[in-house]
Design a protein that fits this description.
The protein is mainly α. Helices cover about 50% and strands about 0% of the residues.
């Protein structure tokens, strides 16, 4: 019976491990992390290598997930068992090779010809006018609560824009959008605002390929 009990326990652990990616997807983790590349925070593979060889790696990483800090959102809503399984899964990713993150090509218009913007840019315009305009003003021109994004984005790399949007700037009253907007959502907003900063996208609703 002891062998049967151990077998059942092993199956239960395996099932939980398989659920770890689902737990990650259900939380805001994927807004800031990926397995093999930096998004806002480091790649899971880099985290795994950082903790490699440490006897208390699971406990330390589980605590980090719970407490957050250093720009990372705390996750007290996850149970100890859930945080432990997520930590074990992350630590198992050390063999994945981390890749550099190149800037995405700035494709603003359909076939490269204005005035019709791409679906991504139009999506960014829609998101901007749903969530960003209240602070940053109509057409990204600035408001009472936030700066003119056309000027802010002019010298900002995509990765920096993503980091600011996902983690927020609490001291300036800007919320963190991690867990609410996806990485692609934020990049679509970046493309729209970048087009505005370059005076390529006019004010108002841009013409799109959906028109």
């Amino acid at each position: 019976m002891r062998g049967v009990t151990i077998g059942v326990a092993a199956l239960a652990v395996a099932a939980l491990a398989q659920d770890a990616p689902k737990l990650i997807q259900a939380s805001d983790c994927s807004s800031c992390h990926a397995v093999d590349r930096q998004v806002v925070g480091p790649a899971y593979s880099d985290i795994a290598r950082r903790y490699d060889g440490q006897a208390d790696a699971v406990d330390r990483l589980s605590a980090k997930i719970r407490e957050g800090g250093g720009g990372m959102t705390p996750h007290p809503d996850l149970s100890d068992a859930q945080r432990t399984e997520i930590a074990k899964w992350i630590l198992s990713q050390k063999e994945s090779a981390a890749k550099p993150v190149p800037d995405q090509p700035l494709e603003l218009f359909v076939d490269g010809k204005p005035p019709k913007v791409t679906k991504d840019v139009f999506h960014g315009y829609q998101l901007y006018n749903s969530y960003c305009y209240r602070c940053h003003g109509t057409d990204a021109t600035g408001g009472q609560l936030g700066p003119d994004l056309r000027r802010s984005v002019a010298g900002m790399k995509q990765q920096e824009f993503l980091s600011v949007a996902m983690t927020g700037r609490k001291e300036q009253g800007m919320p963190a959008w991690a867990g609410f907007l996806s990485e692609k959502d934020v990049m679509d907003v970046y493309k729209y605002v970048k087009g505005r900063s370059l005076d390529l996208i006019p004010s108002g609703r841009p013409a799109s390929e959906q028109d």
